[in-house]
Amino acid sequence: MNTFLQVLTNGIMLGSLFAIVAVGLTLIFGIVKVVNFAHGEFLMVGMYLTYVLTTWMGIHPFATVILVAPALFLLGAVTQRFLIQPLMSADDDHIQIFATVGLSTALINLALLVFGADIASTPASGLRTPLQLGPVRLLSGQVAILVASIAVVVVLQLFLSRTQTGRAIRAVAQNRAAAQLMGINVNWIYILTFGIGAACVGVASVLIAPLYPTSSGIGTYFVLTAFVVVVLGGLGSIGGAFAGAMIIGLIDSFAGFYIGSDLREVAVFGVFLLILILKPSGLFSSRLNLSHVSP
Amino acid sequence: MTDISTTSPRSQAASNGWMLKAIPLAAILASLVLIPVIVGNQFVYHIFITICIFAALSTAWNIVGGFAGQLSLGHAIFYGIGAYTGVILMNMGISPWIGMFAGAAIAVLAAVIISYPCFRLHGPFFALATIAFLEVFRVLALHWRELTGGATGLMIPLQIGWEWMVFRDRLPQLLIAFGLLLLTLAVAWWIRSHRIGFYLVATRERESAALAAGVGTVRVRLAAVAVSAALTAFVGTFHAMYLTFIEPAAMFSLQMSIQIAMFALIGGLGTVFGPLLGAVLLVPISELARAWLGAHALGLHGFVYGVVLMLVVLFMPNGLMGLISRFTKQRRERGVLAGTIAASAATPDARQRAPIGADVMRVEHLQKHFGGLHVTNDVGFTLREGEILGLIGPNGAGKTTVFNMISGFLKPDSGSVTVRAADGSWQSPTTPGDFATIGVGRTFQIVQPFAAMTVEENIMVGAFHRYSDVEEAREVARETAERMGLGPWLDAEARGLTIGGLKRLEVARVMAMKPRILLLDEVMAGINQTDVRRAIDLMKSIRDSGVSIVAIEHVMQAVMSLSDRVIVLNSGKIIAQGEPREVVKDPVVVEAYLGKEFIDAQA
């Protein structure tokens, strides 16, 4: 029973990790309607930034968020403005896919060039301290991720539903042309959204860096799961992404324990393929109207 | 009906363009073998073998990713299957020459099983699904250690000679790689220049229009995937023998899949020789960077690749081949336009009209609901041979829904559609393909051109329904184009036509199928008066050749002068039918169109 609880807890912790990575992806996916294949590399950039700031300047990893999140916002905004925006009107979606795939390839290899193939370990700063909660053990850094992922989801939901800008973003997502006619600067909304999506990854990277060693390939590891989460949760649905992340976290954790740790990915991607093929709109109906981007 | 004299300067120009491409192509291919043989350096051999391998992989990928437009980022699956099958069988004492066919067979099986459910997915979702499958294969290859050696990988046994595909010399390896490249190029060229290639591009451009033209869209794409997978597996087997060592991370690698697709994009997606060009330009960069800069520049070539990829999509999305064809086309068009400005308008045949014959289509008790909306309520009618039946009604009356049900695009909730086949038997087709086979052709209210194809190629897709030979289909397409007044635009891309031109193209494509029943959905909406008159003449001449027509039309002038009978649909129900003159006087019809107040005012 204790083992079961431990596996369950691990699943929830893993789920919150996936959630915080996937939230930004689903936002970009749902509003700009672009699949950002470079999302994982944004995470990698954020983690390297955290590593550099903590090791060179000795700042606590969490404190670097005040620099990392804006830096990632800028990276996202620049990506949208100079890479995606010129391609928004391309009638062939190959083009946008190749654009972000190109960005992803360039960033991975840039990291290899700058940091080499060795892994970079951000100082744990007490975040790898185990906590004993009744029968289960977990790390304080994991609890921070859980808390932060819930906070990010709540803040984003409030922002989208309560603020004027948030409403404008939702309007653009529902009908680009109509929003434009209402005087919304659509291109600016896209840049903003891409920036916010990337800034979410910035927050994620600050939380993840002390727990996972950074390498140039770390993005690929996380982003594939993030895609699974986003499709599972319904494109553009932030709450859905959170729920989807929890499900995938639990599947990963239980499959790893009961089937075999090397087959966890088969279970996760198996679920992904089933969802894509059987119910491509995701398990949870999306709050944003995305009928025209559904697969 | 074909005017031979108008086609000859075109074909001459086309053959010039062909020569313009053939010579550099032959030069590139020849230099792939000659340069390493002349230089004789081991490293140069290695670069050129790698070029051939990647060019072949990329060409094979392009059959799916380019022609069919299914962006696979999991093609390393088939490469890996080829490699593993070859090595595993070789370790059992079976020659890789046999192993490569075994690998291809397994790859084809995997390709069909993977692709069939994924064809419903488009764009990024298809790409994501293929990546997911790739990950599954990689993890499974790591897991089944007894078979694959797991993470430690597999070595090939040291058996040298032609029968083992393993050599001390580089030359035989180069020849095999080059042979594989030629094979892939030949297959890609064959596909692109035959019916299946047209079908693939048509499916990529407009799936519904392709269905209406009788294309088995799933079948042709499965065929493309199967061929592509087999070729990729061939290359995989050989590459494994060349590398002498394989491991899951290298064989089932996402980076590799991306690279294969990237060469095709940079060279020119969907072109036969683009992938070759992309590989010839980019492979040396990475190999040289790896050799000269070594570990210092870890990631440098990848970084260059990524940047080049972004620049290409931003500034030349049609790739190198796009640049080349823009250059050659300019030269060609100047020659063509001068001779053919005098457009030949459609001339109605002076033939006598055939009498209206027996029933050819029976529509009975069609019902259709969309949620709570009852869009078709007990619609039934018959269509007779050589008859023009007008289908009119206000917006939202359900006309197009009826069309979709009598062409197989929508399944009625209840009711039946039966069509008399050419042999006189009555059949109940259900899919768009069935309808096309039995001789029902349709147009779409919102025109659905295959935008990236020329006018001629658009019409050929229809013509292929009856003629499998390319030249025959081309002949029929030209004839049809002349008849529709599209003759001067045969070589123009469909996306450049005006709305009137697109409507005519829509009709031309379906006419080239030589249908016995023609369903025309608002072909006159939004075109000018001259074109309307021309269209009326055209419909008469089609009718006189014995084709039965159902036409949805809002242009009353056309409805009145053409229709033998008119059916008026309102809110999903037939509210009147009969001769045009009587129907328009029917107060129920007037009310449906103009409202009750109008009747009261007249009274």
TrEMBL record, chain A:
Keyword Cytoplasm: no
InterPro entries listed in its UniProt record: ABC_transp_permease (IPR001851), BCAA_transport_permease (IPR052157)
Keywords in alphabetical order: Amino-acid transport, Cell membrane, Membrane, Transmembrane, Transmembrane helix, Transport
Major localization class: membrane
Pfam families: BPD_transp_2 (PF02653)
The keyword ATP-binding appears for this protein: no
Compartmental location: Cell membrane
Record CDD domains: TM_PBP1_LivH_like (cd06582)
Annotated TM spans: 12-35, 65-84, 96-119, 139-160, 188-212, 218-235, 266-284
Membrane topology summary: Multi-pass membrane protein
Family: Belongs to the binding-protein-dependent transport system permease family. LivHM subfamily.
Protein's UniProt name: Branched-chain amino acid transport system permease protein
UniProtKB/TrEMBL annotation, chain B:
Membrane topology: Multi-pass membrane protein
Gene3D superfamilies per the UniProt record, alphabetical: P-loop containing nucleotide triphosphate hydrolases
Keyword Protein biosynthesis assigned: no
Annotated compartments: Cell membrane
This protein's record includes keyword Nucleotide-binding: yes
Organism expressing this protein natively: Pseudorhizobium tarimense
Source species, domain of life: Bacteria
Domain ABC transporter: 361-596
PROSITE patterns linked: ABC_TRANSPORTER_2
Name this protein carries in UniProt: Branched-chain amino acid transport system permease protein
Primary localization class, coarse: membrane
Keywords: ATP-binding, Cell membrane, Membrane, Nucleotide-binding, Transmembrane, Transmembrane helix, Transport
Membrane-traversing stretches: 18-39, 45-64, 76-94, 100-119, 126-144, 174-191, 222-246, 258-283, 303-324
